[in-house]
Amino acid sequence: MSMIRDLRAVVRPSRPSLRKESGAYDTTRDPATPSAVVDCAVYRDGARVETATPLAPHEAMRQVRRDGGFVWIGLHEPTESEFSGIAREFGLHPLAVEDAVQAHQRPKLERYDDSLFTVFKTIHYVEHDQLDANSEVVETGEVMCFTGKDFFITVRHGGQGSLRALRHRLQDDPELLARGPSAVLHAIADHVVDGYIAVADAVQDDIDEVETEVFSPGRKGSPRGTDAGRIYQLKREVLEFKRAVSPLLRPMQLLSERPMRLVDPDIQKYFRDVADHLARVQEQVIGFDELLNSILQANLAQASVAQNEDMRKITSWAAIIAVPTMVCGVYGMNFDHMPELHWRYGYPVMMSVTVALCVGIHRTLKRNGWL
What we know:
This protein is an alpha+beta fold and 371 residues long. Helices cover 54% and strands 13% of the residues. The chain has 13 helices and seven strands. It has a seven-stranded mixed beta sheet, sandwiched between helices.
């Protein structure tokens, strides 16, 4: 059982900050690889069987059927023709094969007669110097896993989320690999969810930055909605994150609660830990969505307040200007008989009265907070 106690340490290395370690994701495909097969290896008694030349999938499966163990095949964005031969060799269900080739699937778990088909959405945080209305915060990819009695096949879509480092870590623990394909499935699930946790921490920093700017003291509001675009873009990215996290919770619960013929009972216990961490991330993402709704509403309310203040100022100055306009309009009429029209002091008196009225209105409006 010492292997089981060390399971978390094997599949969960220390997580560096995504803002500092952009190399955590392999965004390139080996140009020397002539096909979609990234790696193909046979594992027997927890150790990789070394061969002089790279194995083809059918050769690896022939070894497994003859000598035991299991084969792990990794593919990156295979075409239908590239994957059809592997599908026939391992007896994969046509519906699962179609999903694996076309990609853009929701996270899910499907059980067929001799295999499990699991879809994971991988999330990568995109570094940016300044968050704006066009910033991309998260990138998504997909990892699809076929788990059988003596085989494990991964189909990866997207430029990030490489499993090469995870494969090497598992190969360093023979006791864990000796548990078979279900141990690899757990390791990938744990790896993906750990990525969610790291991305959630990074997104939290972006939300805190936007929240601080919106509610900073002395902020006059944003009548043109200069912050609304940033908030809305961040909300869209959080929604993409939510689409990856929420549908995966049910499959993880099924893997942790229901006995399955293809999942080792000792490994199944640790899917509960993955489901627990996934539930925590889901709560964070839901909280992000609700918080961004509040921030967006507050920003729009501030913009509305700023616009109301501008309108009150415009209205106040219009009221002040109305006094001389009225006086000039009255005494601009062409009547012969008007009061004070021919009085010597008529002009200075009317100008004084006009100025006094304007000053009085200005002081009253300013005292009431309109100016």
